[in-house]
Write a structure and sequence with these properties.
alpha/beta; TIM Barrel; two-stranded antiparallel sheet; 10 strands; binds iron/sulfur cluster; iron-sulfur; Aldolase_TIM; iron
Length: 228
């Protein structure tokens, strides 16, 4: 069942040029990335009595809809949830709020992602490409995967992550982006390879999805948020 963390925050820097409301589903994640900011509150901790149901989250979005023009749905990993629960929630959000709806994902659920894009339930996707997956074999490069995403993907999951990045670029949403944290363990070459891969896919599909290489902030570093 979908659960949401009760702290909704307005942000001014997650989507350039827009005021966004950032909400977090509280249903865990299938990765454990180095320096994850959400690990203690949203992944290690199970939802407790303070959680919001999907209906309560939609009502809060409706009540404050004039205060932001984009909704960012983060996690954990929002797409770990059941497809039918995700669809019901996003349909209700469409009825409560007129602005852009953007989902954050680590890319491990390309089927759900394509379904949401095809049905127009989300306007954009911020997808992580944390490593140059196309160049790293889960067998030979397991240590790099383990260090950065805390797990070694199967070859199928690696294909899924690449398929999800391509789905986002093919869709070419105005608010979509591919992004990577500049993890301190990685040399610049890793990020250059990811950027080149995104450039190739944009050229292949005639798309203009930007690539962002974001600074690494240790988990205790404060971010510019205002609680709503
Ligand atoms: S995918 Fe995102 S939420 Fe999940 S562990 Fe990695 S940084 Fe944290």
């Amino acid at each position: 069942m979908l659960a949401f963390y009760p702290g909704f925050v307005r942000t001014f820097d997650d989507l350039p040029g827009r005021v966004s409301l950032l909400i977090h589903s509280w249903n865990g994640c299938n990765m454990r990335c180095f320096g994850c900011h959400n690990y203690d509150d949203l992944i290690a901790a199970k939802p407790d009595a303070s959680r919001l149901t999907a209906e309560q989250a939609v009502e809060r979005i409706r009540a404050s809809a004039g205060l932001f023009d984009a909704l960012l749905v983060s996690g954990g990993e929002f797409l770990v949830n059941r497809a039918s629960d995700i669809v019901d929630f996003l349909r209700s959000v469409r009825g409560a709020f007129d602005g852009a709806v953007i989902v954050y994902t680590n890319g491990t659920y390309p089927g759900k992602l394509r379904m949401l894009l095809d049905r127009g339930l989300v306007d954009g996707v911020h997808i992580d490409m944390k490593l140059p997956y196309h160049l790293l074999d889960p067998g030979e490069d397991s240590d790099v995967y383990e260090t950065i995403i805390g797990t070694v993907p199967s070859r199928r999951t690696r294909r899924d992550m690449l398929a999800a990045v391509e789905a986002v670029i093919r869709h070419n949403g105005e608010t979509s982006q591919v992004r990577t944290v500049r993890y301190p363990q990685l040399s610049d070459e890793y990020f250059e390879r990811i950027r080149a891969y995104v450039d190739e896919l944009n050229a292949k599909h005639g798309s203009r999805v930007p690539y962002f290489l974001n600074p690494y902030y240790p988990p205790q570093a404060p971010r510019r948020h205002s609680q709503l």
